[in-house]
Amino acid sequence: MRGFGSDNHSGVHPRILKAIERANVEHMPSYGTDPITEEANQLMRKIFGAEAETFFVFNGTAANVLALSALVEPFHAVLASEHSHLINDECGAPEKNLGAKIIGLPSADAKVTPDLLRSRLVRRGDQHASQVRAVSITQSTELGTIYSIDEIRAISEFCRKERLLLHLDGSRLVNAAASLGCSLREITTDCGVDVMSLGGTKNGLLFGEAVVFLRAGLSEDFKYRRKQMMQLPSKTRFLAAQFHEFLGTALWLENATHANRMARLLAEGLSQSKYAKITQAVQANAVFARFPRKMVARLKERAFFYVWNETTFECRLMTTWDTTESDVRGFVQAVEELGPLHSDGSFV
Ligand SMILES: Cc1ncc(COP(=O)(O)O)c(C=O)c1O
After folding, report:
1. Residue 142 in contact with ligand 1 by CB distance below 6 A
2. CATH code at position 287
3. Backbone angles phi, psi at 307, to 5 degrees
4. Is the shortest distance between the CB of 316 and ligand 1 below 6 Å?
5. What is the band of 348 on the pLDDT scale with cuts at 50, 70, 90?
6. What is the per-residue pLDDT across 20-30, written as a single tens digit (0 to 9) for each?
């Protein structure tokens, strides 16, 4: 049985490997000046709109930090959910490299709302306070929930009105689009997002992310920022080729739809067990659940997953493009087998 540790525990989709192989011919110019990268940039404009400017980087943390670096100065602040990757899982890279303050907003479902943002829009113009300049949202969120199109639009309208810039961490954007049944553009450019970090590693790519500016006027100095932050890949063609295959065909939709379906199946199975309690809405490819505490270590031996919150013992199970129905059934069965042996009925 494969584990549920993360959607980046899975390997590389064979079609992505083939795309890398196809790009592995002849000599080509480096640093993003090759024809494959140009073709991928054009594809991004086709998908996200004529103003889209794409910059490939090595990983998601860099994409987030770099995207925000184009929006804020060190005396600015960025508002994000307290659950955001930006705040919890980037080892302070945003604070170190931006110099700006990242402010976490309390949120049960990892989403922010205009009301929540408004509550932190204080001391504007006060020279003693960091000035809120940007908002960062994650789609799908770190708790596996999803913003509707209307919710993102409401946030972006709020941002426009308040002269704030909107960043979207789209490490799992494709899972959100597949779940909502909409195009990638409908939940980004058309909703007024300014810049996004676009991922693929969690849906079958080998590595690489893209910083995509969705409207003109923000990316002017970005090539210098990327280089200064050591994120300009010399053989960019191999990143571009992956994104071209991923987004230029239905692969993103197939992989994300499959991962989302496996999560729903897992949630259905677990919700029928008295040894599991689902704790978050299952809207993308994550299932958050609690199990009898004594059972967790044994269960993790059968199929790995993370205890996400060490205080509440809430666990996170991620499904991915290669999760199978049999992985899911095996896990649900393991819960039923281990439950009677290792449970005292307590979930804390
Ligand atoms: C929401 C989110 N953003 C960004 C990232 C990208 O991080 P990395 O630097 O590991 O590529 C991740 C990876 O776990 C993530 O879950």
Report:
1. yes
2. 3.90.1150.10
3. -80, 115
4. no
5. low
6. 999 999 999 99
Task: Give me the domain span that covers residue 274.
Answer: 251-342
Q: Tell me: pLDDT of 94 over 70.
A: yes
* Integer CA distances (angstroms), 146 to 199, 209, 280, in order: 16, 20, 11
> Is residue 1 in some structural domain?
no
Indicate the helix (H) or strand (E) that contains 198.
strand 195-199
Q: Is the C-beta atom of 148 inside 6 A of ligand 1?
A: no
> Measured from the CA of 90, which atom of ligand 1 is nearest?
9
For the CA of 62, the nearest atom of ligand 1: 9
Give whole-number Cα distances, 134 to 21, 33, 101, in Å: 40, 31, 11
Residue type, 100: A
Among 195, 229, 248, identify where a domain stops: 248
Kindly state whether residues 170 and 121 are assigned to the same domain: yes
Cβ(60) – ligand 1 distance below 6 Å: yes
pTM of the model: 0.97
In the block, tokens 């184009």 appear at 70
Domain-terminating residue out of 248, 280, 296:
248
Examine the pLDDT at 76 and tell me if it is beyond 70.
Answer: yes
The response to whether residue 138 sits with its C-beta less than 6 Å from ligand 1 reads yes
Q: What is d(CA 116, CA 99) in angstroms, rounded to the nearest whole number?
A: 24
Cα of 205 from ligand 1 centre, angstroms: 13
- Using a 6 Å cutoff on CB, does residue 231 contact ligand 1? no
**Are 232 and 149 contained in the same domain?**
yes
Number of structural domains in the chain: 2
Query: Is there a single domain that holds both residue 240 and residue 259?
Result: no
Q: Does any domain span residue 5?
A: no
Ligand 1 atom with the smallest distance to the CA of 209 is: 11
| Ligand 1 lined by 59 (C-beta under 6 Å) | yes
The 10s digit of each residue's pLDDT in 226-266 is: 999 999 999 999 999 999 999 999 999 999 999 999 999 99
